[in-house]
Amino acid sequence: MMRLAKYEDLDKIMDIYAIARKYMADNGNVMQWGETYPEREMLEDDIMNKQLFVYEEGDKIHGVFAFMIGPDETYSYIEKGSWKNNDLYGTIHRIAGDGAVKGIFSQCLDFCKERISNLRIDTHNDNHTMQHLIEKYGFEKCGIIYVQDGTPRIAYQYVEYK
Questions:
Q1: Distance between start and end Cα atoms, the chain
Q2: Domain 2-159: which CATH class?
Q3: Cα separation of 13 and 53, whole Å?
Q4: Are 16 and 111 in contact (CB under 8 A)?
Q5: I need a labelling partner for 30 at 20 to 30 A (CA). Which of 16, 23, 91, 130 fits?
Q6: Strand pairing report for 90-97 and 118-123
Q7: Where exactly are the structural domains of the chain?
Q8: Cα separation of 20 and 13, whole Å?
Q9: φ and ψ at residue 56, rounded to 5 degrees
Q10: What is the pLDDT of residue 100?
Q11: pLDDT < 50 regions, the chain
Q12: Is there a cis peptide before residue 152, judged by omega within 30 degrees of 0?
């Protein structure tokens, strides 16, 4: 079940991100999140803005992601391609799981698609696991964007036409 994250979830959320950073580092992706991303203060802001969600089974949290609908400054400039459209979109950021439950990306995507049918997401060139999942679930590569620290990311968009 997906639900909004609460401040009391932060310790478990930080644990999940630590697991994800280790997984990425062990699989050749040491640059995307480094050793400390995302910072606790960022997650506190996400909770305050009601844009951080957790996936839980029973009373145990297994996954976390940020989701917001509306323009994302990170996506205002794209090179080596273009967005599929300029319609209102939702953005998925910082998705991570603890490894104990499979299918968190699929659950996240279903949750987001219930809210808006135009989605954007990005990932690091070295994050082959995420690239595979993103493409498996129908996102199309649109080009390259740059995150706040200036590093490039592969940008994807999913559009479900009704």
A1: 25
A2: alpha beta
A3: 10
A4: no
A5: 91
A6: parallel
A7: 2-159
A8: 11
A9: -130, 150
A10: 92
A11: none
A12: no
